[in-house]
Amino acid sequence: MKKYFLIIWGILLIPKFSLSAISYPNNMQLNTSETAIKIEWDCNENAKGYYIYWGTYYEQMDQKIKINETEECSYTLTGLELNKKYYFRISSFDDLAESELSPIISTTTLSVNSAPVTPSDFEVASIDLITESSINLRWEKNTESDLAAYMIYYGESSGDYSDYNTITNLNLNSYTVSDLSSSKRYYFVITALDHSENESEKSSEIIADTLPDIFPPNVPLNLEVKLNSVYGMSVSFNGNNSNMADIKGYKIYYGIEPANYTNNIDIGNITNYELSNLAENTIYYFSVSAYDYSGNESGLSSEASAKIEPTRILLTNPDEFEGGCYINSIITEQKGSNIKKFFNIFFFSAFALFFMLSLKKRYMFMAFILILIFNSPSYSQDKNGIGIKIGKTISSEDIQKDIYTDDFAPVTLFYERNLFYNVFADFEIGVVKKNGLVLTSSGTKTDIDTKLLLIPISSSIKMDIELSSLILCFIGGGFDFWGYREKDDKNTYSCFDDDKYGVSGYHGKAGFKFMTEEPEYYKKVGIVIEAVYSRIDKFGQNEIDLGGWIFNFGFLYTF
């Protein structure tokens, strides 16, 4: 009989547990002072009370407080250390069980001299509320628990605040400063004050004029004008009025003679603007003013000028740069599919590699002498190696440096093959991307974007010199054939479009290989560090050299 009673009691009790399950309180918040933390949360109507878990370590909150009163849903923890971080979680409980714990939140108690945070978003509430004798101000309220007041300082000159108002009603986040004089310009800042008389830093200054407003805005600064298209210019400046309450906008004045502006444009409250359809080979002169809602206009800014003139990028001048290979007998004008064009690039590189290999017979004796001098008897390495390198480029040409200041780190794939003893041949293909700004024909930088893509393809003969069983240095050189594409807002200059397929050159390189001594990968895997200097100018036929220094770091696998 007793057995059946327990079963029936268990069946009746299970639903009761299920229905009585409660959740932890939501929206737990912490308000901090020097030695106390006030914990607040949203009340749970099903709860009989709450547990607050806390401590000074995230992983170990071993202190526990039981709260039986549920009306206020807050608790102030006192007697804490100064400038100490505390962690908190909270749960609810009823007659049957305790809820899950809330997520952990934390706060740090203040030090004795901790000042409140400077009130943020301090501004004139509305220019429509400005009168002859009053100005309404607003800000975002601070959250410190020991906050005592807000202090609004003001005066008739910047940085000199002869008057102030104290706002002790902390529920307010706006205030009207009254008893001001008409037709005056006032400068305002705000601070926060706590009960220990610690005061925050002053806010940024704001400027407002009482009515009737007779004061113009500040004169704009740092006017700059640049070409941004074939017949267009971009005008940008520092408005110098970000803290002016009644600033409405700016006007651009311009003409083709200094200080004689025959055109003007109201651009509204922005500080950059683009003009188009300007006359070619003409110098334009610009100035800017600011105006407010009362129609007051500032004086003109300092003058700036720019010329609508032809622009240039790196590869636009055929007298300075022309694609093609140095071996004229191999170059044939071909038109057709992209497959044929790519074939030409690889054909030229293969020819360069064949040419270098043919040199080894002529210099066989010299190679053997170098091997005897530098190569130790213990030298051994697999016949083949593959790898990847990433690097940093430094251009040879000043004009390339002037145009392209943003380089994408070049990436190179390589294959090397041991020819004999410690002499290797390698083949490499990489990609280099650069972003820059077009120059005018007189060398002035514009706002026109340009991009340069280079595909370096090279083959080399190099010699490895063993410094130890795991460290080798190498030196070598060879021929290059680089693909290129340069694009600005007007044109694209591509090695495929001009039927040259690339431009030839040569390079020298030196570096180190650091091989692994792990038994499983002994001398199989290594790190490569090298410096490469290339000259890609069609063997002196071009004035523009695409090459320069490349410093590479990469990984090698041999087999």
Please provide a brief summary of the model.
The chain is mainly β. Helices cover 11% and strands 46% of the residues. The strands form 7 sheets. Strands 22, 23, 24, 25, 26, 27, 28, 29, 30, 31 and 32 form an 11-stranded antiparallel β-sheet that branches.
Description of the structure:
- This protein has helices spanning 2-19, 338-362, 364-374, 398-403; strands spanning 29-32, 37-40, 49-55, 63-67, 74-77, 85-93, 105-108, 120-124, 135-140, 147-155, 163-167, 174-177, 185-194, 206-209, 221-229, 232-238, 247-255, 263-268, 272-275, 282-292, 304-308, 311-312, 384-395, 404-420, 423-440, 445-455, 457-466, 471-487, 492-494, 503-515, 525-535, 548-558.
- With 559 residues, the protein is mainly beta.
- The strands form 7 sheets. Strands 22, 23, 24, 25, 26, 27, 28, 29, 30, 31 and 32 form an 11-stranded antiparallel β-sheet that branches.
- A hairpin with a 7-residue loop joins strand 3 and strand 4 (63-67).
- It is flat.
- Mean pLDDT is 87; it is low at 4-9, 11-20, 328-362 and 371-379.
